[in-house]
Amino acid sequence: MTVAVIGAGMAGAAAARTLHLAGWQVEVFDKGRSAGGRMSSKRVGGHYLDLGAQYFTARSDSFNEQVSQWRAANVVSNWPASCYRFEQGQLRQSVDNTLRLVGNPSMQAPVKALLADIAVHLDCRISRLSLVADKNGQTGAGWYLFDEHNQRFGPFKALILALPPVQLHTLLTTAVAADDAADHELAPILNQLQAHSQALLPCWAVNLQLDRPAPIDADAIFVKEGNISWLARQNSKPARDNKAENWLVHFSPQCSILHLHAKPTQIAALAKAELELIFDLPLSVTEAICHRWLYAQINPAVCPAAPDYHPGLRLAFAGDWLKGGRVENAWLSGVAVAKEIITHG
Ligand SMILES: Cc1cc2nc3c(=O)[nH]c(=O)nc-3n(C[C@H](O)[C@H](O)[C@H](O)COP(=O)(O)OP(=O)(O)OC[C@H]3O[C@@H](n4cnc5c(N)ncnc54)[C@H](O)[C@@H]3O)c2cc1C
User: Fold this and answer.
1) What residue ranges define each of the domains in the chain, with the CATH number in brackets?
2) What pLDDT is recorded for position 184?
């Protein structure tokens, strides 16, 4: 049986790998130029800069087992970061026992490893879905996918949408528009999804390359006040052949929402000012790279309760947002829906 997975982030890749290992034929589609989704890194001058997820943790037994396999394949390493907190205007060391993991040589490496030997269509934005009717005219016999150029893929017996909820809702709406019968089956699902449109909040990310190493001991700073939430010295991560001093700034959700439509130059200037305030030093920036994540991290005020598998339609949802955010939960979500499909056939 063939299954289509839309979204080659951690959730989609984990679902695709689970199905592939169970002997199913899988095709994965992603609008990005490489797999990884919110774990994507930007290649600049031969080095990777992580603009999305900065590290991940492993708490469950099953994910720890997966991490062991990645470790054996040299796809992930520990990041023994010297961590600090910035609060009440003070920078203080913050010691904890958290084992922080990063991909080698960039955050998307474990996602790419999961997709090895699987057919992946990159640079392929799926813009429309259509349910296949069986010979009695009933929907549920499968799915067709259409890209932006109206190229059709399928039919696929089952479909996994491993997307943030807003993108998922938009895509599923196209199936309703194409087919009256689908309306009846999909309307309640779409209503539920609507309630989760705020499940992921935006984040402006800025990488600032400095002209010299910052004279502070910190590799990572949890910022507890003001406009930003996180700072990381990218060149402190293992397996990055990057000698230049690069600091990654993540703005808080509130500030990112406030400046959602700001120009990158404005955001870069704000990032430099914030870094100078926290380091208490004037800094010289040689290059700034900005990226706006519209759907970044989980909104603690929204608690999705959407079922992630609809056996009648052979339609499944996967993503970090269904399990509380974070890389590990994206992986758990992808594995769980793939197992549902394998169980129900
Ligand atoms: C700024 C930031 C910081 C973070 N920090 C951390 C952290 O430190 N630790 C941690 O554990 N997690 C962190 N996260 C969260 C973590 O990145 C996510 O939990 C995880 O990567 C989500 O994976 P996913 O597969 O659910 O979704 P995504 O990675 O968003 O994957 C969805 C994929 O769908 C594709 N797509 C969307 N629409 C279409 C379409 N129409 N057609 C084709 N493809 C489509 C996208 O291109 C994308 O690749 C962070 C995220 C961000 C953005």
Assistant:
1) 2-37+113-197+302-344 (3.50.50.60), 42-108+199-298 (3.90.660.10)
2) 77
